[in-house]
Amino acid sequence: MFLYFDTDKSGWCVDSSDVMFDVVVVGAGPIGLVLSNYLGKFGVKTLLVEKNSSTVSEPRAVSIDDESLRAIQGINLAETVIGSLMPDYGSCYQSPTGSVFAKVSPNTREYGYPRRNGVHQDVLEKQLKDGLEQYSNVETWFNHQLTSFSEVEDGVELSLQSADGQVKSVKCRYLCASDGASSFIRKTLNVVMEGDTYGENWLIIDIENTKDTFRDTRVFCDPSRPGISLPGPKGTRRFEFMLLKGETNEEVLAEENVRKLLRDHGPDEHAVIRRKTVYTFHARVARDWKHGRIALLGDAAHLTPPFAGQGMNSGVRDSHNYAWKLAQVALGRLGPKILDTYPVERKPHAQSLVDMAVKMGHVMMPLSKPTAFFTRLFFRALAIYPPAQSYITQMKYKPKPRFNEGFFVPDGHKLRNTIVGRMFIQPMVESSQAPTQKQLLDNFLSDGFTLLSYSTTPETLLKRVNGKFVDTLKVDSVCITPKSVLLSAEDNPRSQLRDINGDIEKTLKAYGECVLLLRPDRYVAAVFTPESVERVNREVDTLVEATW
User: Fold this and answer.
1) Concatenated DSSP letters of 115-176
2) In this predicted model, what pLDDT tens digit does every residue of 244-298 receive, in sequence order?
3) Which one in 76, 332, 416, 481 has a CA-CA gap of 20 to 30 Å to 230?
4) Where would I find the H helices in 214-277?
């Protein structure tokens, strides 16, 4: 017997099925593991299903960005994961002669972490899997394959087959497909993947104990053989080389060929090779991300060329976005229509990152010597104009995490200037209760919605607006002062935070003193002052009502 809140019936119900879950997640890669950790933390009864006997044992994804690390911070695993990364590296784009014509070296930490970090997917997956052990409400079934599923009036019924041939029937209220590029769920739903597949395959080589001491990525923009050399944690390195016309997989995977490529591109000819394989790169996005009670996440929803290192990271964003919405529905705080905002918010941003990767591929894979020459000339010309050069070096070309539509209240500012619908920054702050301990902002935020009051007297500002929001959001509150304010624990019964470096002041320059409504995924849902609070509250109330 299982007691659950049915949003369709607006009440608690009893299910008599043998096995009943709020959510079943299929696929225990990084996306399914992050999603399951969030659902575990939110208290949602969850089953994670994986057809293999364990998480992967190969490197696979080798780059994790600041947004993904912030998402991992939200499940209390940031310190664990960071300890096994190679943090904060850049890229150098080289001509066929080895000269560098463009550099990418971002030094900002807008969301609290370096923008580019080396990672081993196998290590990351184990860390995320271990993180699930703290949640009694999450079960993990490895060696179980989904063989069929069907939507019913109040959920989804699934048939799972274990490695020994035993068939189990499971029912859930919502099904999440994080089952990869060849998603069984997506194919069963007949969801079309739109976009392109690259005509050229790529050879991937992962080595150990590299002798190359260069810390940044080398991008070999050579028409005769485009390639990449990426540094990794603990002395590892990845090489990627494009197959040339007429070459077969067998030819390029041959030991002699692999060793020659390593010899021609650095000092690692005799390195230990951990993995070598040939990949086909795709730039494709699913037409539909949600089908009734079923949602696609990660590679099941979008396939990104690796040139921008955004494949896994885009999937983590999916999980971060969808998890809190599932939890709000499962706990009866918001209606099931909130889940419809998942594809509305995530699909355009994922598509923009696919497009960015394709454009970067054009730079990395020049089709001819003239094309390569003019590309290098263009990037060198950027050095004449510092703002243009900064656009490249600081990765400002990377599409911002922002939504044009979704669960938020527009504030009237132009799209390029508004902070509503954007991920809020995560600066270092200090607390009036522990002024010597500087921490990232999210460490002081709850797992739910937060009213963030920013003012020289944030407590007073908060009192003027608090209590005017719908109870279903379960809003917490945090007070932050500008850099110039001296915090005093004696004068404040509750802890206040101080914007140490003035980052929040810069972000809110067009707003001044105000209160932000932050969503659980740290996106800004609304901005208001005491004068506008009643209007904004009505619009937030309308948003909430629209979810039912």
Assistant:
1) S-EE--HHHHHHHHHHHGGG-TTEEEEESEEEEEEEEETTEEEEEEEETTS-EEEEEEEEEE
2) 889 999 999 999 999 999 999 999 999 999 999 998 888 899 999 999 999 999 9
3) 76
4) 249-253, 255-264
Task: Check residue 301 and report its DSSP letter.
Answer: T
The three-class DSSP label of residue 235 is: helix
Q: Are 445 and 476 in contact (CB under 8 A)?
A: yes
Q: Environment class of residue 288 by beta-carbon count within 10 Å: exposed (0-12), middle (13-18) or buried (19+)?
A: middle
Cα–Cα distance measured from residue 52 to residue 55, given in angstroms and rounded to the nearest whole number: 7
**Residue in 128, 5, 10 with CA at minimum distance from that of residue 71:** 128
Q: Which of 117, 102, 106, 28 is nearest to 69 (CA)?
A: 117
What is the enclosing helix (H) or strand (E) of 30?
Answer: helix 30-42
| Maximum alpha-carbon separation in the chain | 75
Could you give all domains of the chain from N- to C-terminal order, each with its CATH number?
2-85+115-194+283-351 (3.50.50.60), 428-546 (3.40.30.10)
Strands 117-118 and 63-64: antiparallel
Q: Which of 216, 221, 224 is nearest to 377 (CA)?
A: 221
